[in-house]
Structure to design on (307 residues):
């Protein structure tokens, strides 16, 4: 069902004392002002974390920091997560480059397709941070959709039917798409593309193809907020349902979750830092800036086993 905003949409800013939050859209997202990421006080950090859980995605502008500052700011949120795709920059193995060169004509880009980060892991990352260094003059935006709002907007009958179901998440379809659509390059997607020449996938990748099952209705470990934990990129089935029934339910729910009313969209500029909570939203990147370079750095913060 396509919806239009009404009472359950509540992205208004909280009256913080040490930061300012400026909502980006009716459904979610907020710019945080009054912060220098290289020098965040404890009082500011507490409010930043509160704003992240409230708005699901927050961003900071004009933060021309380096890998060391991104690394240090990320650690304030917890320990680093296992990263499913990349190896990190020299000196900071948890800071992963996401660079698409201007001459890369791949038909797929890292992060394309709605997804929550690495749900095929037993303990998927809770939070992701993405920092922009070079951005195309247009295109290359990122979109997010609010999975907690999507849950709240279902009626009671639908909600009762979903509680207790488990989704099977796997890297299978993303891997197949990279093998078919991406150029072999020294990039996360380029490396996945190169596996099409291997006689057999490495065990680490086979494990991600086998994946994991997690509750479709997830409860946030810190706030107790419930959300739809599902995505059309990694969600390949629902435990206990036949293939046709499972595919139909996945499609229905992912269409509901990613409808325009639940989203926000960010146009990047160099020196921006975004943070999102993978337990509360899904996101997607766009491959619409051929001929331009986009240079980003990503860190991910460890999460718990979804429950
Ligand atoms: C991601 O999915 O983590 C990357 C998003 C982006 O590059 O916009």
């Amino acid at each position: 069902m396509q919806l239009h905003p009404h009472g359950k949409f509540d992205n208004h800013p909280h009256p913080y004392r040490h930061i300012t939050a400026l909502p980006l859209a009716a459904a979610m997202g907020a710019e945080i002002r009054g912060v220098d990421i290289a020098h965040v006080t404890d009082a500011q950090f507490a409010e930043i974390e509160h704003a992240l859980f409230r708005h699901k995605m927050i961003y900071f502008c004009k933060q021309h920091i380096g890998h060391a500052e991104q690394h240090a700011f990320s650690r304030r949120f917890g320990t680093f997560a296992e990263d499913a795709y990349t190896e990190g920059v020299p000196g900071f193995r948890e800071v992963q480059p996401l660079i698409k060169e201007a001459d890369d004509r791949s038909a797929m880009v890292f992060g394309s397709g709605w997804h929550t980060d690495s749900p095929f892991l037993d303990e998927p990352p809770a939070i992701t941070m993405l920092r922009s260094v070079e951005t195309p003059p247009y295109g290359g935006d990122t979109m997010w959709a609010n999975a907690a709002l999507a849950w709240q907007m279902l009626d009671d009958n639908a909600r009762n039917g979903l509680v207790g179901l488990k989704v099977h998440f796997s890297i299978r379809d993303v891997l197949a798409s990279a093998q078919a659509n991406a150029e072999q390059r020294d990039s996360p997607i380029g490396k996945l593309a190169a596996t099409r020449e291997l006689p057999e996938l490495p065990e680490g990748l086979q494990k991600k193809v086998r994946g994991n099952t997690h509750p479709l209705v997830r409860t946030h470990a810190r706030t107790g907020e419930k959300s739809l934990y599902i995505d059309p990129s990694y969600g390949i089935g629902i435990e206990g349902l036949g293939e046709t029934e499972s595919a139909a339910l996945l499609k229905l729910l992912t269409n509901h979750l990613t409808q325009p009313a639940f989203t926000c969209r960010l146009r990047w500029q160099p020196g921006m830092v975004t943070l999102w909570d993978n337990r509360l939203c899904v996101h997607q990147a766009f491959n619409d800036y051929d001929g331009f370079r986009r240079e980003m750095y990503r860190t991910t913060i460890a999460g718990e086993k979804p429950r």
